Amino acid sequence: MNYTSFFRFAGVFILSLFFIGTLFSFTPQSHAKADNEFSRPFGLIVHNKNQNRIVSRLKALEVLLKYFPEVNNKSKKPIKMAFEDIEQSSRAFAYVHRGCQLKLYNCLEKQFYPTQSISQRDFLEWFFKLKYFKNPNFLKKQFSKIRTDHVRVWLEAKRLNLLTENQMTYSVLQNLFYRNQIVEANLGQPYSPSLMVSADEITLENYHNVREVDFIQGKLKETILEFLGKRKLSGKEKVYLREAKENYNAFQELKNMLAVRPYILQERPDLDPEVSRAVRQYGLQEVLQSYSYDYSKNPAYRKHNIVIGVQRIHGKVFQPEEVIDFWKLLTVKGLQDFKYGWVVAEGETKWMFGGGICGSSSIVFLPSWKAGLEILERRHHSQYFSDWYPMEDVGLDATVYRPRPNLKIRNNTDNPIVFNVVDDPEKQVVTVEIIGNSPYKNVRIEGPIFVRRNHIKWIRHFEDFNGNVKSEALESRYSLVN
Q1: Same domain, yes or no, for 167 and 301?
Q2: Could you give the CA distance from residue 115 to residue 127 in angstroms, rounded to a whole number?
């Protein structure tokens, strides 16, 4: 091999190594996922069966020591340890002994309680002792006015936005480690979804929730101001600042486009003109929730009353904090348009005015509840009839009749909402859509959960843009589910 070929080969080899290295490096714009591929190397496997299970002290210790493998005890003095509940020949002994060497807990106690659930307080103290092992006074200096260590570590966890819930379940543990890795990769910036956004992903398809765009822009602005306030920036910090500015400007451009033409009008150019005017006027971007009801198997009087009742809310705009009084909507034009039909009243079936009108209130209630709107007043039927209401929606019905019960819903989204009703008489399907700007990143629905045969529970989980989740249950008890 001559020298020219050798140097050419060496150059290609070095460039290949550099390219491979960049593939595995964790850059500020990387998109690591909080899944088992991420957590497997440090012994944390999360699946449907254990994601809500509380983590034991021993498991937490094992995972922490694997997550911080670079932390070693420099003390040469042996630590005498003899916990009564751990045999020295057991697998647990090595982890507990190393934890003692690193002074994670009081080793003078006679028991470690390996199977006991770990408290969030204990876990955070262990976590930050290892995280700042090389700089043990970091938290004392950062929170100099705070005297107790456990308050310091709790404040640091909140500052970095690492925690999502109050108990150390397997899923929370995985999420915390994932968020910490994002924080470390982004020069110690508190965790935010904005840390994982790359410029090529800032598109209308990915970001048409204006509240989410405002949130991410706010985080980017905080980062930009923080770095601009520093006297001297490192090379990495300069790159990070440039990318943050580029992303901020890209989101601003996207907001300008959404203001000119809301996203839903790009997806649905055939939207009803009355609804389209409201969408343009208030800058509404998305369908918060929709529900389609097949009324083909209903008797004629019920088909009529359902469609007439649901159409009373079509095109109606409700401002923030405004209350939707459904019975008032039904009767605003009088009741002469409705027909007589069979009604279940006080446990008996009676031929009365407006039979089946509850079908329209149920069709409006279901998407409203799933969209996260606040329910002020709602009553389920005394009996649930699967011939008229699908079993997959059991527990999500709402009955109305004069003077009570009624259905009242508050618009709690901080933006106007408009209802779009589409009736297809040929297929005999009526659809209700709620269009607005969601204040949530996600509203996840869980159910139906049969507590007992006729006792059904549903849960809605609200996730904000920081990843925090709060939950709310809805329960219905029937005398009969038929």
Answers
A1: no
A2: 19
In a domain, 406, yes or no: yes
State yes or no: pLDDT of 26 exceeds 70. no
Q: Are residues 181 and 298 in the same domain?
A: no
Give 48-70 pLDDT, tens digit per residue: 788 888 999 999 999 999 999 99
What mean pLDDT is predicted for residues 210-218?
Answer: 91
Amino acid 186: pLDDT? 86
Domain that holds residue 119: 35-185
Cα–Cα dist 68/59, whole Å: 14
pLDDT tens readout for residues 240-269: 899 889 999 999 999 999 999 999 998 898
Average pLDDT over residues 289-294: 94
pLDDT of 245: 93
Domain tally, the chain: 2
> Which of 144, 162, 185 is where one domain is finished?
185
- In this structure, the answer to whether residues 293 and 429 fall within a common structural domain is yes
- C-beta separation of 14 from 6 below 8 A: no
Q: Could you tell me if residue 144 is inside a domain? A: yes
